[in-house]
Every structure is written in structure tokens, then in C-alpha cells.
Amino acid sequence: MNKSPDAQRMEKIVSLCKRRGFIFQSSEIYGGLSGCWDYGPLGVELKRNVKNYWWRVMVHERDDIVGMDGAILTHPEVLKASGHVEGFSDPMVDCRTCKARLRADQVIEKKGIQQCPNCSGRDLTQPRPFNLMFQTQMGAAADESSIAYLRPETAQSIFVQFKNILEVSRKKLPFGIAQIGKAFRNEINPRNFTFRSREFEQMELEYFCRPEEGMELLEYWKEERLKFYENIGISRDRLHVKTVPDEERAFYSRGTYDIEYDFPFGRQELEGVAYRTDYDLSQHQKASGKSLEYFDEETKQRLVPHVVEPSAGVDRTVLALICGAYSEDEAPDEKGKMETRIVLRFHPRMAPIKCAVFPLLKNKEPLVAKAKEIVDLLRPHMHVFYDESGAIGRRYRRQDEIGTSFGVTVDFETLGEKDAALRDTVTLRERDSMKQERVPVKDLPGILVSRIS
Amino acid sequence: MNKSPDAQRMEKIVSLCKRRGFIFQSSEIYGGLSGCWDYGPLGVELKRNVKNYWWRVMVHERDDIVGMDGAILTHPEVLKASGHVEGFSDPMVDCRTCKARLRADQVIEKKGIQQCPNCSGRDLTQPRPFNLMFQTQMGAAADESSIAYLRPETAQSIFVQFKNILEVSRKKLPFGIAQIGKAFRNEINPRNFTFRSREFEQMELEYFCRPEEGMELLEYWKEERLKFYENIGISRDRLHVKTVPDEERAFYSRGTYDIEYDFPFGRQELEGVAYRTDYDLSQHQKASGKSLEYFDEETKQRLVPHVVEPSAGVDRTVLALICGAYSEDEAPDEKGKMETRIVLRFHPRMAPIKCAVFPLLKNKEPLVAKAKEIVDLLRPHMHVFYDESGAIGRRYRRQDEIGTSFGVTVDFETLGEKDAALRDTVTLRERDSMKQERVPVKDLPGILVSRIS
Asked: Which of B19, B28, B38, B293 is the mutation pick for testing A, counting most A CBs within 10 A?
């Protein structure tokens, strides 16, 4: 069977990610660990760019939001109060014939009869809940040791520190607490590359407000978050807002939007923006016996704030960036013959490497020295890469394939050997248009900084 | 009993960390989770500054080092090969009288007789090894589910991805792979605030080289790392280099330095710089059956590289910064009476907030508007904080206590109401000296950026 163009495209993306060092299978030399991924040299830079930009616009550029960074290991009482110990589970079915354990929705239903998708057997158990949290034992003494969970979402660390942070930050409602960090879910069926994995990173904001502000803030944050994705170069027409219908929403939520993206494997959730009411704080207040109320100085009343939560996935955003950036076009090779060019069209803000610097020839010492000087000139302002090996066309192509925004070439004109007027100028090439311009070396930092920030 | 000045100092530091939002006990409202900590609004900024500066000097400013970011969940074969499953343990003793489980070195020895420190009982078991790794179960199907570990160090993710990264980065020896990330150890006795905790963050570099370069690179990295600590404001005379003696070194190491710091609770390890030879790569090559060799194009020979590892703790560095920065001096209060001032004397590079902006009075709209304009002016360049509440002296004091490097005050002179020549100038106050200078608003970004970077 022929693969669909989308499936082919996804295969090319996965292959590029490994070939150029964006994403590797975790523990690969030991056969891999299902649902876990390692980010390589370029992947880690892309991920850093996403996280740093999120922190910049969500925390540093605002007066009403502060950050925090909570532990991954979590007290079981936290997750009992939040409902995760009881309810964070998928229904599972066992096939008594082939012993397979299946998610209930994987069971085949034919004319009212349920069948195992593995062996077509019809002897299946009733569905039973399977908790998706990873648990571990903490402490040394057998009688003292206790269960701890790996947090299934970063949000709960924010709720349990709400009172401490309210006190130290002296914020007034509405205000938010933001966090970036790892979370873990023992997914039964990790799939779609890094999209559904067992270890992942979240960027979550809990924005606390008065009850009457909740619905309006839900709209506000949906719009803000859409702007965020556009500002990192995700095309608006691949983004979709789904209003989560009543029956799919968590029972405590008064409104939830999913921001979805058209991945090659289908339209999938990138971020949820949920109005969670006062559910979490009330639960923790009840379970801990500690007041999580806010004192309103104007009305002189105490209230448990409501909360709107924009919750984004770092890995999903990175994957959306790569999928959106991947493209193939035509460019001339060394001899002028047209060939397919693979380009990652990242927004310069997100590109793992902002600028590559090339001496035209590696065996001409003055070219090499000048190129290294330019690297030193640019380095304080951006992530740069120096490359001297291979024909210049090939070096451009290698950078196109990893999405480097700009290329600077030092040639004999730079040395002033051909034309004194061109001394200390270089060729600046833009990745997508492949247009080249001649610019003075001293202007490079200014020109590039304005284009990448 | 009176507490020692060092113990008193440490108590004040822990109290300040909670009071001002640097560090909170994790899951505090549920009684806390031993050995786990949450970073509050200021702690997370301080931690980000440490990590970003490490990444800048270790990865971005060098041609010979690339980054990566590996998963925390780790395949058991990785940790079998590295020796952690077998050997990463502390010897434990059980007291048969009071049932306490003790680290073997906690047992009291009196005249050749061993006693339980709890109940003074003498009926103790022989020491048995207790593995310090956290383990969990991964996967849904009971028959398929398998053990995974939380990595006890980030280093192993680097070794198992060595070949992939060598291929994609096209680096020649010597070169390094750097990583920042969480690691976990089930410490029997977490202590000294965040110093010895069960969940912590590491900044590790594995610097691969030819065998004959190992000893020289060990010296090189020890010096580089000392410079790093000095560059973030840690005083050189509180840093000590300990040459780890043969009998304390891991058997595969040919040389290890501990970089130690004088904490209030004693001289303790901040970072280890270890020459690990080819132990790790050889172990993984043997266990996985995959070649982890490097092909030397000059000599046309294959070799398993040796490695030098500078391994730093993020949390320990943050704690050293806070302990080193904490100081008390005298400053006049509102009425000119001298009072004790608490100051965190952070290097401006590390300060969580670089500059606070104050309107002299909060009920004068033009002052407030101008101050907010200045916030907008500075924000693209640094983390700034706006504060309008309370007397100006109190606002200074609040910022001193959290280590904000500079304060900018907008007063009636700024508005040009008293002297046209002073229009659009502000008071710039430096935290440590408390010196104030009058500077034009338009010069503020330039002046401040040069002092904080």
C-alpha cells in the first residue's frame, strides 16, 4: 500500500530530526524506552527558544504574573485532593484468550459483539480503570517509606504554593503564577513521535481572578495564546480553536478551548485553555485544612479565587514548529543544476542557530581569521555557528536543512583584494529567499539583532 | 544551648528564602515532602540566571561543545552498564530493638561495641546495601510492564547518545556535550536545606578527548570552573579545591577535584571535576553491543574516547549564591535613625531582579505614568520590577533584601517641575553602596545593560 503524502511527510520529518540532531529515541542503543525522547544539539536549542520566549512574554513582560519551579516528586495527598489518584485513569480491558491488555476504546465492536483487535477473541473482561500516574517509593526505612508520584501536570505545584506566593508577591487579583517543567503520564499507547509521550514538558499559567471575571478572562487568554503561536512563526491557518463541548469538559470547568494544530498525523491539541473555577484551590483547602483564601481589601471579603489555565506542551510546540517549518523547494547545485532543497523555515526567533559564518576557503588563513573575528563579533548577541568544510553551496544547504536564518560569507572582497570599496564587507544570505546582500561587517550585529528578536 | 553564629546565620537565610519567595518546602500545606523543594518567584529567576549563564559560557560561547537534553526516565540496562544498579548504594543497618533503619555510619561505636543512636540498643543487623535510585513501573500490560529508573545523574544520557551526537555534530576530539536537567537520589538523610535533596538539578559537561590529553584537560576544566564561580560573584576565598585522594576516588577515575564552598554548615562540595577515563563509554559499548568508537582521521585509528567531567549542582550553586550574598549592615530609616539593613549582595548578572522602578508618590499621576514609561523602556533588556506602595525608604529596603541591583526613582525633578535642566532625569541608586546619581532617562538602558551583563 502506498503511504499518504502526510504519512510520507511525517516520515521525512522524523528522519530529519534524527539525522540532524533534533530528536533521538531515548536509550536508543538499548532498544529504546517507549514514549521517551532525548533532544539533540539542535533540538535542545529549539526547545530553549520556545521556553525562553514563553517566559519572556508570560512573566518578564508583565506586571501581573510571577514564576515558580516546583518539584516533580509529589506528596500523595496533593494528588488525592486534586482527584488524580481516584480519577486520572484510562479504562482497560484484558483479553482472556491472548492475554493482551487493551484500552477499552481499542476493542473492536462488530454487530454488538466485542472482539480483541489482536486475536479476534471474544472473551474479554469488563473495563477496569488503569491509573496513568507513575509512582515510586521514597525514603529508606521500610516502615517509613511512602509512595510519591511523578506529577502528571505542573499545575498542582502552583495550587499548593498559592498562599505562599500570594504572600511574598503581594499581588492583587487578577494575577497569575507561571511554571515550566516536566510532567509524566504512563500513556498506554505513546504515539505520533514526541506528540504523545510518557515524559513531557509543560508551560502552564494559573491566572487567578474573581468569579465574575472568569468567562471574560477565558476569552482573553485564548486570544493571547493564539498570538503567542503566531509570534513564534506558526501559521494562523493551521491553528484551530475548538470549543470543548459540555460532555467532554471536566465537570468543574465552566468553559474550555482547545487550541489545535494541523499536524501531518491530523488535527491535534497543542494547548488547552480552561476555566477551572475554584475547584483546585477549594479541594486543597478542604484536604489540607489550610486557608487558601484571598482577602479583598476593597470589599473586605475573603474568597477562594477562580482560575483560568492556559496549559501548553513544550514538546508539542517544538513538534508543530518543525512540522510547519519543513519544506522542500528547488535550488541550483554547484554546477547550476536544479536539485531539491530541504529547508526548515523557522521564524528567526525560534531558529536553533541564528547565523552561520563561512570563510570562502578553509586553506586561506586571512579568510579563516576574518571569519572567526566575525564569529566573536556576533556571539555575544546570538547563537552562531562556524563552518569551513566543503563547497560553499553545500555549506548553505546544510544550514538550510537545520533552519539557520542567515549565512555570512567571508570572501576575497572582504579582504579588500579586488576592490578597496568592498573591504570589510561580507555577503549576507537569507535562508528562505536565498537572497544575498553585501553589508559592512560592523553593521552585522545591528542588522541581525533587529531581524531575530 | 546557644546556637553558633554560623547556625544562626543559616537560620536567617532559610527564613529569608521563605519570607521573600526564593525557596519553599515542597507540598508544604500537606506537611512537606522530605528532600524536595519548590522555587518561588525569586528563586526561579535566580536559578534561571545560573543555568543560562552556564549554558552561555559552556555551549554558546564555544565551538567545541554542543548541548543536549535527555529524558529523566531511564532504561534499566543503561544503569546496569554504568554500575548504578549494582553499586549505587549506601550501607544500612537495622536496629532489632527499636526497628530504626540507619545509615551504617550513623551507628555509635563505644569501646568496640555498636549502639543504636535512637534507643542505645546493641542488637543491630549487619550492614546491607540500600540502592539510592528511585524506580517506577512503566507500561500498562502487567506482563509487559518493566522497571524504569529516574536517572541518578544526567551524565549517563550523554554517554548513551554519544554516537548519535558525534555523527550529527561532526565534531573532532576534543569536544564536549553539555546538559542541564533534573536527577534524583533517594537520600536516606536529606539535610542542610536544599544542599542534599532527593530531587535536584545538574549542569554536566562530558568533555571527550584522546587518552593522552586527559590529565591536562582535568587541570584545564578545574581552572575554567573556578573562573565560572568567580564570574557569578562567588568570592574566590570561599572556594577550595580538594584533590580527592586515591582511596576516595571512583576506581575508574585517574584524578578528581572537588570544588568546595564554605557554607554556613561547613565546607561542602559544589562541583566535582573528574577524569573518568573511557570507563562509561566502554561499559555501554560492551553492554549494548554498539560501537561507541571515534575514528581518528589523522591516524586512521579507532578509539574509545576518554572523558573529563565537570559536574555542577544548580541548587547548590543557588544556595552558595544566597549564602554568600546574605549580609547585614546599617542604614538610616525614614527619620534618619540607623537600623539594621538586610542585603543580598548578588552579582548583577545573577540578581533575580535587575532594576526596580519607583514613582516617588503613588497618588501623583504624572509620576506614576513616567515610572511606567521607564519600566517599558527597560523591560526589553532586563527583568524589572515596578513598586509604588509605601515610603521610598521602605521600598529601597524591600529591594535590598531580595538583592535587586539598582533602583530608579521618578520624582518631581524628573517632571521638570523644579529645574528644567533636571527634566527627564532620575535618581539611580546602587544597592550595595547605596550611592545615588542623577542620570538622564534616555541613558538608563545603556548604563544598566553595561553593568549587569
From this structure: B38
